[in-house]
Known about the structure:
Blueprint: H1 12-26, H2 31-43
Amino acid sequence: MGVPPYVDDCGVFAGLSRFRTAFYGCLSARADALFERCDALLCQDGR
């Protein structure tokens, strides 16, 4: 499954990248583990 070519035209990936960077900056202790946990929860297939 690929990404449609028009998705990047809207700056979706740039916005997501800025959000992820800002969110990671808000985490203090164990930032890597917390970030990976949140990323896994948000990326799971809607079961």
